Amino acid sequence: xxxxxxxxxxxxxxxxxxxxxxxxxxxxxxxxxxxxxxxxxxxxxxxxxxxxxxxxxxxxxxxxxxxxxxxxxxxxxxxxxxxxxxxxxxxxxxxxxxxxxxxxxxxxxxxxxxxxxxxxxxxxxxxxxxxxxxxxxxxxxxxxxxxxxxxxxxxxxxxxxxxxxxxxxxxxxxxxxxxxxxxxxxxxxxxxxxxxxxxxxxxxxxxxxxxxxxxxx
Length: 217
Known about the structure:
Elements: H1 3-8, E1 30-32, E2 40-45, E3 55-61, E4 66-72, E5 76-83, E6 85-90, E7 93-98, E8 102-105, E9 111-114, E10 121-128, H2 132-143, H3 150-159, E11 162-166, H4 186-206, E12 213-216
Antiparallel strand pairs: 1-2, 2-3, 3-10, 4-9, 4-11, 5-8, 5-10, 6-7, 6-9, 8-12
Helix pairs in contact: 2-3
Pfam family, one: Cupin_2
Protein name: Cupin type-2 domain-containing protein
Domain Cupin type-2: 65-122
């Protein structure tokens, strides 16, 4: 292990009762996840570090950047908005998610997320089960090459269980803008996100008859 990797992480490989992982801010593989110049996120935890239970990524979503309407066939997804404000469309319902809000979306449920008029929104995203990193590593190469081949990106997504549906027919005017509050302390909210994530994944395993999406404020 190199000194640089030691500074980012303590513990490695699949998590066990005697193992742990610490990621410092700015650590993790950096990937070009969306077809925008600044749309880089980092992989916080990979499947081979979580017994293939989940993957976590994090990054900024800048104004007018969006993940277009799509759904996942293989993963459930959970967003935690740490800073800024995002507008979601989930299963046809549109709403704002401001700092401190968590949004859970079940697989096969349509979703769209966009920064309408906010300062850069910092978000952590959990995918369960793991495996999402394999798609992100490949689509990052496509997004690095301009002009972006959207047909190739859509086919790649489909091969990884993501069905892209294009644009939302209409974005409602919900005034999804940032408030004047101070930046949320990342450390405290990361801990909260971890506990929510663990509870959420255990709930999935224990009971499959849960809501198709859930907002936690």
